[in-house]
Amino acid sequence: MKRLESPARDRMEKGDIALGVGIVQGRTVDIAQLMKTAGYDWLFLDCEHGAMSIDTCAQIAVAGLAIGITPIVRVPIGGYGLATRLLDCGAMGITMPHVENAEQARELVDNCRFPPVGHRGIGGGVPQYGYQTVNLGEAVEELNRSMLLIAMVETPEAISRADEIAAVDGIDVVMIGTNDLALAMGVPQQFGHAKVVEAYETVAAACKSHGKWMGSGGVREPELAAQYAAMGAQFFLAGQDIGFMIAGGSQRANILREAVAGS
Questions:
Q1: Are the C-beta atoms of 203 and 176 separated by less than 8 Å?
Q2: DSSP 25
Q3: Cβ(20)–Cβ(236) under 8 Å?
Q4: Among residues 36, 57, 154, 212, which one has the fewest Cβ atoms lying within 10 Å of its Cβ?
């Protein structure tokens, strides 16, 4: 059976970091190639926030498969119907926001992994195998192996249960949603605050104890990213398309306005 490639998983298995980019505003399949060219390893296709449809998400996911950038979808809280449909349509991972405890982590695994790990059903040919007829037993085993299931922890309560969440078989990544976490802690946007640092230490210890990868979302400062990487974080959400477009566009506009004004 063909081994399915997942640049995000493959990099982390080698001990490297896997860099992702949030896709909120992108609506066409060329966003996958653009982000691959920009140097990213995975797409964070955001169906929790924004207006992305299942059709758009599926098309971008298939494009990502074809060029070697891992398509991972964040679904709304409890959105398992959407999650399994998008896994059938090319996604190589699911991010579930606001996972608060082990029970919710097990629910993620049970819905998204095939037997004997979970209870996901098979719907026919899948783009991961080019829609070809394949040995079903071998295919579901490889799909189970290659996909990434990411539990996002975004509240102090979830952080306090990080060990039980990381202990759930079938969870690959425990990812801190730093923006929501800092907000819930009463220190909005203070991603280097002692409370946030302590949360990272807690999740790092849980992931190390149970052989899971730690993820980080929302942190933009290179120094903080390096600090959290030193703790063990490997799965980084580096930013999103909206921010990149505004930052790049603003920088260019300011440079040209200053140049013209000084001429």
A1: yes
A2: S
A3: yes
A4: 36
Q: Angle, to 10 degrees, between the axis of helix 30-37 and the axis of helix 54-67?
A: 40
Q: CATH assignment of 7-261?
A: 3.20.20.60
Which tokens sit at 230? 């030193």
Catalytic residues, by residue number, are: 49
**Any idea which residue has 């998204």 for tokens?**
112
* pLDDT tens per residue, range 240-255: 999 999 999 999 999 9
The answer to whether 43 touches 71, Cβ cutoff 8 Å, is yes
Q: Residue 42: how many CA atoms within 13 Å on its side-chain side?
A: 34
Q: Residue type at 232? A: G
Q: Which of 230, 185, 236, 207 is nearest to 20 (CA)?
A: 236
Domain ranges of the chain: 7-261
At 30-80, the pLDDT tens digits run 999 999 999 999 999 999 998 999 999 999 999 999 999 999 999 999 999
- Which two three-digit tokens encode residue 36? 């691959």
CA distance 72 to 95: 7
CB 109 within 8 A of CB 118: yes
